[in-house]
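Students often ask why we bother encoding 3D structure as a string. The short answer is that it lets us treat folding as translation between two languages. Here is a chain of 188 residues written in the first language.
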Amino acid sequence: MQDTAWPGYEEIPGWIVEGYATLCAEIDEQLAGTGPDLVCVPVGVARSPRPSSPTTTAAPPDGPPPLLSVEPETAACVLASLAAGTPVSVTTGDTVMAGLNCGTPSSLAWPYLYGGLDAAVAVPDAASVRAAADLAGLGVSSGPCGAAPLAGLRTVLTGAGAEERRRALGLDAASVVVLLSTEGAPAC
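And here it is in the second language, the structure alphabet:
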């Protein structure tokens, strides 16, 4: 099963995309309906991070929180598509984030991606591997795909221009950030 869709193959990917609504409901439950200040999601298979209108079902009065998509540098079809304003395909390369290695946005996800993302970033493998190791050190089982949101958050919040990016996303030291990890650490 996969969640990449194309004309004529949309039913099963549609079910998978709908399943992501469960993640949003769980976020609402765990945060007691207050909502996060930023949600970071992996989008390498270009699945829809917003299966329904708001990111979570209990969106704050001023709207849903900003949404940051994260994908591998070697398969940045979402970034390329956002820049073009239409879905485009990119040639992909090798990545440890195999589950995020996608060269074309899903036809089902594209409207949500184009209309719903507030920021997007591509990360190198090394950043994702480091994030997975850091999460493991905290007792969180996550492989490179699942750790990509942490790597993306770090990329956005550090380095040249970080203060401007924080301001644009409305983040400060008290912000609540949700990292959506959809992959556990691989069994060895």
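Translate back mentally: The first helix runs from residue 11 to 30. Keep this in mind for the problem set.
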